[in-house]
Design brief:
The chain is an alpha/beta fold and about 375 residues long. About 45% of the residues lie in helices and about 15% in strands. The chain has two domains: about 220 residues, Alpha-Beta Complex (Spore Coat Polysaccharide Biosynthesis Protein SpsA, Chain A); about 90 residues, no CATH class. The strands form two sheets. A seven-stranded mixed sheet has the order 3-2-1-4-7-6-8, with helices on both faces. Helix 3 links the parallel strand 1 and strand 2. The structure holds 2-acetamido-2-deoxy-beta-D-glucopyranose (4 copies). It is found in: Membrane.
């Protein structure tokens, strides 16, 4: 009896150890599975900084801005391989022209882009007020969250902007939003001596210096939840005599009261003549290069800013479907060098750094 129970106890002990051993094997292999790096997908092996597969980009065009806005599209396509969906709001004359050109470009680029065209529409009650604010139809963008209710997020740009780097790098900032942020923009300026808002504004504005809304990441889902469009008309009616920059001022007024909703972008993502005409006022662009150029106050066209015009010309001359690696960078460099001297022109490296780096990824020299 005793001997049996001893044997039994040994048996029990052994089996307990076995079970414990097996359990530890299983759980450690589970742990291993959790820590294991995921099998890299095709996208993450590539040179692209992220796995973003599709970007939504939007702008609003009326009147004479057609050519300029096509250069936004070209500049985006020049520096990326991701799929880009364009959401364009345009007046009745321009929609057929966009349809024709973009359908052609879509075929030529093997469907790298697609697009939707919308008519410009404002709430009927105050249509004239809205149309006359700042420039015709610019205020359209304030209503976008309700006009395209199925779109989650987009990058909005003014038509006088040019990408110099891969659009997915900018899109990536959506992933950095904390839970109270619904929008990302650069500051109008961060030098109180030249910044317009602290010196002249007669209305509330964001932070100490105000925001420039020419480049705006919009999480439309969050803006709808916030009730964005309901804020817009009462603010316009209250302040319409005091807001020279129209929609941008309305955005500043709203975010004055909701600072937590804004993610502030570096000045390199919305680089204007203000950042260089009085000397170098955007250290990040000097350091890492200008990512997006904004030719506000007609800087791409009015012969006052030869550096801005040089970049614009090189992109304007690029034809979709031709091999840009052969001439776009060379032309940028040449037009820049030939331009008459200016403060902005002194910062050549800042202007050319990002396009040069992006092209070396997109068109690597052949292995030898
Ligand atoms: C727009 O581009 C077309 C074709 O390149 C050109 O013929 C036309 O003059 C341009 N219009 C403006 C206003 O620059
Ligand atoms: C926008 O916000 C919604 C709600 O928080 C979120 O589900 C969505 O992923 C966000 N979109 C982007 C592009 O970050
Ligand atoms: C602004 O102007 C004041 C007075 O002229 C000067 O002392 C200051 O350095 C300037 N600040 C900047 C950031 O340029
Ligand atoms: C999100 O970031 C903004 C800006 O830094 C900040 O004001 C806000 O409090 C943050 N929100 C949350 C929920 O942490």
């Amino acid at each position: 009896m005793k001997r049996f129970s001893l044997k039994f106890m040994i048996f029990m002990l052994l089996s307990t150890f076995t079970v414990l051993y097996l359990y530890s094997k299983v759980s450690s292999s589970n742990k291993y599975a959790v820590n294991e790096r995921p099998v890299p997908s095709k996208a993450s092996i590539s040179n692209e900084p992220t796995q973003i597969e599709k970007v939504v980009l939007s702008f609003v065009v009326c009147d004479s801005r057609f050519n300029e806005s096509l250069n936004v599209v070209k500049s985006v396509l020049l520096f990326t391989r991701v799929h880009v969906h364009f959401v364009i709001f345009a007046d009745d004359n321009l929609r057929p022209k966009f349809d024709e050109t973009l359908t052609k470009w879509k075929q030529i680029t093997n469907n790298q882009l697609d697009f939707e065209l919308h008519r410009v529409s404002f709430p009927q009650e105050h249509e004239q007020d809205w149309m006359n604010l700042f420039s015709k139809c610019a205020a359209q963008r304030l209503f976008i969250p309700e006009l395209i209710p199925d779109t989650d997020a987009m990058i909005y740009v003014d038509t006088d902007t040019l990408f110099l780097g891969p659009v997915e790098e900018l899109w990536q900032y959506f992933t950095q939003f904390n839970s109270s942020q619904m929008s990302a923009m650069s500051l109008e300026d961060d030098n109180p001596n030249v910044s317009w808002y602290p010196r002249f504004a007669k209305h509330p504005f964001y932070g100490k210096f105000g925001l420039n809304s020419g480049v705006m990441l919009m999480n439309l889902t969050r803006m709808r939840t916030f009730g964005w469009v309901e804020y817009v008309t009462p603010i316009m009616l209250k302040w319409k005599l005091y807001i020279p920059w129209g929609d941008q001022d309305i955005i500043n007024i709203i975010f004055h009261y909701h600072e937590r909703a804004v993610h502030v972008l570096s000045c390199r993502y919305n680089y204007r003549t203000d950042q260089c005409m009085y000397g170098d006022a955007c250290a990040d662009a000097t350091d890492r290069g200008i990512f997006l150029l904004h030719g506000s106050r007609r800087a791409f066209h009015n012969n006052k800013q030869p550096a801005f015009q040089a970049i614009y010309r090189a992109i304007d001359e690029y034809e979709i479907g031709t091999d840009p690696s052969k001439y776009v960078l060379t032309n940028m460099d040449r037009y820049f060098t030939e331009a008459s001297p200016s403060n902005c022109g002194n910062l050549k490296e800042a202007f050319l750094k990002v396009p040069t780096k992006t092209f070396s990824h997109l068109y690597p020299p052949p292995d030898r």
